[in-house]
């Protein structure tokens, strides 16, 4: 069972998601007024679902403010499929997005996958060149510098690093990191990797290589 916060100005959507996830045993808190979200004890929640298009404070602004307080998975709900919005959301620290209208099974699978990711027991650390992964705390360092990766960026980096030298397709990375198969919207992996590369490049490192026509590898 997990504590899940849902933020959407559409009360019908709130009730629908509440009904779906409550049946899986989760505790659901519904918020229809985005300006009230920051009054919540955000550390109480294991996962947060945010609508993007809301009056006043939109999902992008909320995501940015929430990320300053907690690092739990954030999943965007969006009626828009504009790639620019997806890129913007991931850059602000979101982990994933779900397009409206969505299917019941897809919602459950997506939520369960992110929660399983959070619950995995991790010990140890690994070092590859100047890059060190603290697997217990889910942090990545280049020498003494902490690389400011989001959760999803960290998971992708760790997965590729643990299998360094091996090439993975976008589909394989998505399934390994998020825990379920997905045939569409694999651009989310492309954008995450763009963000990862930009953050590593700040410290002079370029560990993720593109193998054209195949996928990516940690070199």
From TrEMBL:
<dbReference type="GO" id="GO:0032993">
    <property type="term" value="C:protein-DNA complex"/>
</dbReference>
<dbReference type="InterPro" id="IPR036388">
    <property type="entry name" value="WH-like_DNA-bd_sf"/>
</dbReference>
<dbReference type="InterPro" id="IPR011006">
    <property type="entry name" value="CheY-like_superfamily"/>
</dbReference>
<feature type="DNA-binding region" description="OmpR/PhoB-type">
    <location>
        <begin position="123"/>
        <end position="219"/>
    </location>
</feature>
<dbReference type="InterPro" id="IPR039420">
    <property type="entry name" value="WalR-like"/>
</dbReference>
<dbReference type="Pfam" id="PF00072">
    <property type="entry name" value="Response_reg"/>
</dbReference>
<protein>
    <submittedName>
        <fullName>Response regulator transcription factor</fullName>
    </submittedName>
</protein>
<dbReference type="GO" id="GO:0000976">
    <property type="term" value="F:transcription cis-regulatory region binding"/>
</dbReference>
<dbReference type="InterPro" id="IPR001789">
    <property type="entry name" value="Sig_transdc_resp-reg_receiver"/>
</dbReference>
<feature type="domain" description="Response regulatory">
    <location>
        <begin position="3"/>
        <end position="115"/>
    </location>
</feature>
<keyword id="KW-0804">Transcription</keyword>
<keyword id="KW-0805">Transcription regulation</keyword>
<feature type="domain" description="OmpR/PhoB-type">
    <location>
        <begin position="123"/>
        <end position="219"/>
    </location>
</feature>
<feature type="modified residue" description="4-aspartylphosphate">
    <location>
        <position position="51"/>
    </location>
</feature>
<keyword id="KW-0238">DNA-binding</keyword>
<dbReference type="GO" id="GO:0000156">
    <property type="term" value="F:phosphorelay response regulator activity"/>
</dbReference>
<keyword id="KW-0597">Phosphoprotein</keyword>
<dbReference type="Pfam" id="PF00486">
    <property type="entry name" value="Trans_reg_C"/>
</dbReference>
<dbReference type="GO" id="GO:0005829">
    <property type="term" value="C:cytosol"/>
</dbReference>
<dbReference type="GO" id="GO:0006355">
    <property type="term" value="P:regulation of DNA-templated transcription"/>
</dbReference>
<dbReference type="InterPro" id="IPR016032">
    <property type="entry name" value="Sig_transdc_resp-reg_C-effctor"/>
</dbReference>
<dbReference type="InterPro" id="IPR001867">
    <property type="entry name" value="OmpR/PhoB-type_DNA-bd"/>
</dbReference>
